[in-house]
Structure formats: C-alpha cells, structure tokens
C-alpha cells in the first residue's frame, strides 16, 4: 500500500512538471509555426540565386570595367556577385574606385590573375600588342578563378548592359555544352555593318588554312565564327572536358607553328576558342550581344536598333572612352569618374 502511494505521488509530480513546461513554452517561447516560418525564410532553397559575373580590370581601361559594372547593377534586381579580375599592380586602383563611388553598394570580389600561367603559351606579335595583354586570357581559366559556382557569365570590359542580366544568366546550355556564345552570322541587322567595315565572320578570318594542322581539323573555312566577348559557361562541363587544357594546347601549338596571329580577325584569344568549341556550344540570344561598335569611327547602327539591344559591345580598335569612336553617349551614361583622377575620357575638346 505504501508502495502504491509512492508511485501515485511520483506520477502526480510528473504531471505537474509537464503542465508547468507547457505553460512556460506558451509564455516565453516563439510559437512553433512562427519558428518554422523563420527557418524557411533563411533556408538556402528560399534564398535568391547568386549570379556570378566575371569582368577584367586592365591598366589603362579600368573605366571600361566600371561602366560595364554600373550598367549591369543599375538594370537588374538580381543578386549579382561581381568577380573583378586584375593584375597585382592594378587591384588597389579598381578597389579604391569602387569603394569610393556609388558602386560601393555592389557585391564584389577582387581576384588576382597571375600572368605566369601564360609563360611560353603566347606568340609575340607586334601588329596589335594590346591583344596580347594577360587579362585577355582570363576567360580560358574561369574554373581556376571561380570556385563555387555551377554557372558563370564572362563579359569583356568594353560592353554596356541595357537589359536585365538575369535574362542572360537564364540562357539554356544544351547537355554536354560547356559554354554559350553569339554566332557572328546570327543577326541580319549586323550584316551590313560587317560588310561595310570588312570584318570577318568565318573561320577563314581567324585561322591560317595554309597550315596543315588547321586543315587537319576538318573545319570548313566558311563556317560561321562566334565571339567570346560574352560567355555563359557551365563550370562542371568545362572542368569535365578539360577545356582549359585544350585551349592551352592550341596556344602552345601556335607558338610553335604560327597557326593564327593578331594580324587575322580576332587575334590570339579568339582562335583557340574557335577550335576547341567548334560544334560544341550553345547560342546566346542575338540581342544579348550587339557587337562591332568599335570597328569603325564612322559606321553606325540606327538609334532605334541600339535602344532595343540588351548588350552593346565595342569590340575593335575604336573604344568609347577614346577618340574617335561612335555611340559614345550610350557608354557615357554608365561611366563613373575615377575618384583618383587617373583615368580620363578622351574627347576632341579634352
């Protein structure tokens, strides 16, 4: 009897403790439904996808990178992370420029590119030395610079983005394709520009078909080329297919055999990509890469056409921060002056 009484006392004590615990939770703790809602809001699945955009900041043309970044940031609500790639000597300048301008609100990482990776892989050519600058080859090494992203956008610095970068990021890559580019024959509106300034838009303009190594590729010289100034890349496929190693192989072969040179259409950075990606790339919407704005100081597109364009590219010799050049107003809309005063726009009255 005494044992039964003791058991009842214990059960009663447990019941009291349970009731107290329930009352304490109601008074002092956040309701379970609310706690779940908070967790959901912070979970990775609900977070906005990060869009990595790679842009180089080269000495003498950092204003180009700043204008490109400014145009992207101003025309999207997307969660953009800028990877700004520079050499050791230029990194302090571009960092100071961003941190002391209205771009201080952007998300960015400054990445140093070591030009030693190019040793023995570039054939010196005096006709267009600017094409041999180390940062022209950053696009070859994207997986070495960008570690945590599956999909990456690479942009040349001489572009202005007028559309929402989210649209470009949403470009679909076919299974097995490591990258998407713009075909040089993709937009009838640009054909007249190509003819008027004598530009090349086939492999004949980039590779030396007198060389046996080029003929052995089995690529027709009339095949339409593509422009690697705007790239949407799949890093998993890039690494799986060892794209960087393939590009380096053709760089080294050019050093030994002079298979292409900067006297041809795209210099030494485009040609190896044309070889490695031949028949193995997806296409970017043509309006997301309106190019050739820098090929002539006189040839112009219609203003209506340029207003409809999502991305403008001043590829060629005549850059919008120099003189002479065309459509400079569209570029200057996004330019942010250098707080240090080192970079200046060149104009007739300057």
From TrEMBL:
Which terms are listed as keywords in the entry? Answer: Glycoprotein, Glycosyltransferase, Membrane, Signal-anchor, Transferase, Transmembrane, Transmembrane helix
Q: Which Pfam family is an annotated match for this chain, by its short name?
A: Glyco_transf_8
Does the keyword field hold Membrane?
yes
User: Main subcellular localization, coarse class?
Assistant: membrane
| Topology in the lipid bilayer | Single-pass type II membrane protein
- GO cellular component annotations of the record: Golgi apparatus; membrane
UniProt GO MF annotations: UDP-glycosyltransferase activity
Asked if the keyword Membrane belongs to this entry, the reply reads yes
Q: Where in the cell is it found?
A: Membrane
What's the family?
A: Belongs to the glycosyltransferase 8 family.
Q: What is this protein called?
A: Glycosyltransferase 8 domain-containing protein 2
The organism encoding this protein is: Ficedula albicollis (Collared flycatcher)
């Amino acid at each position: 009897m005494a044992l039964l009484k003791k058991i009842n006392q214990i059960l009663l004590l447990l019941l009291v403790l349970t009731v107290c615990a329930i009352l304490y939770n109601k008074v002092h703790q956040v309701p379970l439904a609310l706690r779940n809602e908070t967790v959901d809001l912070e979970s990775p699945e609900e977070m906005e996808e990060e869009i990595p955009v790679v842009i180089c900041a080269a000495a003498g043309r950092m204003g180009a990178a700043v204008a490109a970044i400014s145009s992207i940031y101003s025309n999207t609500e997307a969660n953009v992370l800028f990877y700004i790639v520079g050499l050791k000597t230029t990194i302090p300048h571009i960092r100071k420029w961003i941190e002391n301008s209205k771009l201080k609100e952007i998300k960015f990482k400054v990445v140093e590119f070591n030009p030693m990776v190019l040793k023995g892989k570039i054939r010196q050519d005096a006709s267009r030395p600017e094409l041999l600058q180390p940062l022209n080859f950053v696009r070859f090494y994207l997986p070495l610079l960008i570690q945590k992203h599956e999909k990456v956008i690479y942009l040349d610095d001489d572009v202005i983005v007028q559309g929402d970068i989210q649209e470009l990021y949403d470009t679909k890559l076919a299974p097995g394709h490591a990258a998407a580019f713009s075909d040089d024959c993709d937009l009838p509106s640009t054909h007249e520009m190509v003819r008027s300034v004598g530009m090349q838009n086939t492999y004949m303009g980039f590779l030396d078909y007198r060389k046996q190594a080029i003929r052995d590729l089995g690529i027709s010289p009339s095949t339409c080329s593509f422009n690697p100034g705007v790239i949407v890349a799949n890093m998993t496929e890039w690494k799986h297919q060892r794209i960087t190693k393939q590009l380096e192989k053709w760089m080294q072969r050019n050093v030994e055999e002079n298979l292409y040179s900067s006297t041809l259409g795209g210099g030494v950075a485009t040609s190896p990509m044309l070889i490695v990606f031949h028949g193995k790339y997806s296409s970017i919407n043509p309006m997301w890469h309106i190019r050739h704005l820098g090929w002539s100081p006189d040839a112009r597109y219609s203003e209506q056409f340029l207003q409809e364009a999502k991305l403008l590219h001043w590829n060629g010799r005549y850059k919008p921060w120099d003189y002479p050049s065309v459509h400079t107003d569209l570029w200057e809309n996004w330019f942010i002056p250098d707080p240090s005063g080192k970079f200046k726009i060149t104009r007739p009255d300057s």
